């Protein structure tokens, strides 16, 4: 069964490959073998100037890259450089495009200049399965992601993202022009080893919860009412910026999380519980919120015998990071994963990146002044 999370989810690129002095050791047959890491640096052919739609300050831009991968491999590390004007770049995600999707990707590429892709999957018709299920063959998957403060991402020893030969990649970058709209040139460097290394293949599952953060009392008074402080009007504002599909996603997520879609509970904290659908081992975790997020928690099998997977007491958007699990944690089909996020709307009045954004009731949204509550769970077959 598929669900609305399917939506949540550089022109011509200059490709440079170089052998690394680093190495990955993996078991192959009776004796271990060491493989040198090769680096693929994917560079934008030209700086991109963010161009949000009228009335918005966010631009999601997708660029198609052919890395000319002639041999299947594993990605073992990634290092995204947003460019000189880093405050404009909100996040970046690299998607794998298998050969069966190459034609659709080329059609979307609009003369090599890329395409707008906020509020939608990177390619029309692409969908991701529910958390805890394998992504079907022939559908794009996340290869790696970057958010402020993340810097170089090295996957746990003995693991890697499968990178089939002949694959294309799509780099999705979210720009926010509240900090400026100067053209930005970004690069991404991938560390790879041959498929012969026989690493444990990584999968990424996404576990969201729907924010419903009301206005502060001072934002809407009898003397000076603020129409955007009603959830209904805030959703209309969301649709103006990103289309009706953005509202449909919000309502779909409310429904999946067992809430009243027309009148979900509002507050500074939100949560949602998901059911896992396969046996695996959790090797790393991540937490993602936007600028008013202050704390994040994740539990396995919430209740009397729950296990705390992640507890981020002082979330900072500018210093996001991944968390390696030591030891790895076994998760079974039928296990439940609960996430919870807490937001502080006061930050809206003090953060320079938000001061020019309208004060309003805040829901899930693709803009930097909207919010998200998202747990990222990296697993290998258990």
Describe this structure in words.
It is a single chain. The protein is built from four helices and 22 strands. Helix content is 9%, strand content 40%. The strands form five sheets. Strands 1, 2, 4, 8, 9, 11 and 12 form a seven-stranded mixed sheet that branches. It has a five-stranded antiparallel sheet with strand order 6-3-10-5-7. The chain has helices spanning 102-108, 231-242, 244-256, 347-350, and strands spanning 14-28, 31-43, 58-65, 73-81, 89-97, 115-116, 141-146, 153-154, 159-163, 168-176, 187-194, 200-201, 203-208, 212-213, 269-275, 280-288, 293-300, 307-312, 322-331, 336-343, 362-363, 374-381. The chain has 382 residues and is mostly beta strands. It has two domains: 4-200, Copper type II, ascorbate-dependent monooxygenase, N-terminal domain (Jelly Rolls), CATH 2.60.120.310; 206-381, Sandwich (Jelly Rolls).
What would a concise description of this structure say?
By secondary structure, the protein is mainly beta. The chain is 9% helix and 40% strand. The chain contains 4 helices and 22 strands.
Q: Quickly count the helices.
A: 4
Average residue-wise pLDDT: 83
CATH class label of the largest domain: Mainly Beta
- Global shape: globular
β-strand amount = 35-45%
Helix share, percent: under 10%
Give the name of the CATH architecture of the largest domain: Sandwich
Number of strands: 22
* Distance from first to last alpha carbon: 23 Å
CATH topology of the largest domain: Jelly Rolls
Uncertain segments of ≥5 residues (pLDDT<50)? 1-21, 27-31, 125-139
Largest sheet: 7 strands, mixed
Task: Determine Rg (CA atoms, Å).
Answer: 21 Å
Query: What class would the helix/strand composition place it in?
Result: mainly beta
